[in-house]
Amino acid sequence: MPDLTINSGALSASFRPDLGGRLTRLTHRDYGDVIVPLTDVDFDPLNWPKAGAFPLFPFHGRLADASFEHGGRCLQLQPNPNRGTDAMHGPAHRRPWDVLKSTSDETVLTLNYKADPEWPFEFRAVQRFRICGSRMDIEFELTNQAGTAVPAGLGWHPYFISFLDNPIRCNATMRRKSSASTDPKDSWERRPLPVEPLSSYPFTEHLSDWSETSIASGRGKVEITRHEGFPFVVIHRTPNYTCVEPVSHEAGALGLPELAREGAGLATLRPLSTAIGRISISVNSNQSH
After folding, report:
1. ∠ Cα 83 231 143 (to 5°)
2. Residue 149: which residues within 8 A CB-CB, separation 6 or more?
3. What is the pTM of this model?
4. Are 247 and 231 in contact (CB under 8 A)?
């Protein structure tokens, strides 16, 4: 299947709906590639390449022993064999998505998920991408179609091109200091103000109460802005890429006792209710005229 491409002004984005609704490339006319291009399209869906961007429905992060509580029962999911006995990042990026709408500057992808061993509840997911000039607006929706209230989260997992000498800033006011806990006060601390650039060494940070993250380089600046939902962001820095993952809940929240999940951001969604998250990516090139 060929890439589905949209563009407007300086920005161009390509997608492979059949490969888990992935963004495969995001390029700016003057800045160049923004996201690590996904070129290996024959990958194992359970061992995905560190490239492109993929949706995180209906949970993100690692789920210990691939099991969680629901309605007083322990539900067992099919684990990811590359993560031992754990599940990770939900199954939506391992399913083919449908194209609901496609124009020159906008595409809308949908997934009607049917219950299976990787997730026992039905849901409908939507990804909307629209480009205007040097900005791409992105909206995510998850609608519970299970007929009963279920835990439901959403997020996005992009791989931005960056190197260790590229300053990364995030205006989040809270930082997680330990793993998800039944009492959020035990695991979170307030970041000192003014907020300094994040470490120039490889790291993974779990942050909250944020509205903007930026990656600067000699080519210019990429800004990820939160507009609705997504109170948490996971930033994972490596020598050659940085993941800036806007998410609706803490990593590990699904594995907490049911009554503790809300405090970690993981909603219990009523039948036919919808969770929404909106972000934008803006690219400012030093070469733009």
Report:
1. 75
2. 268, 269, 270, 271
3. 0.95
4. no
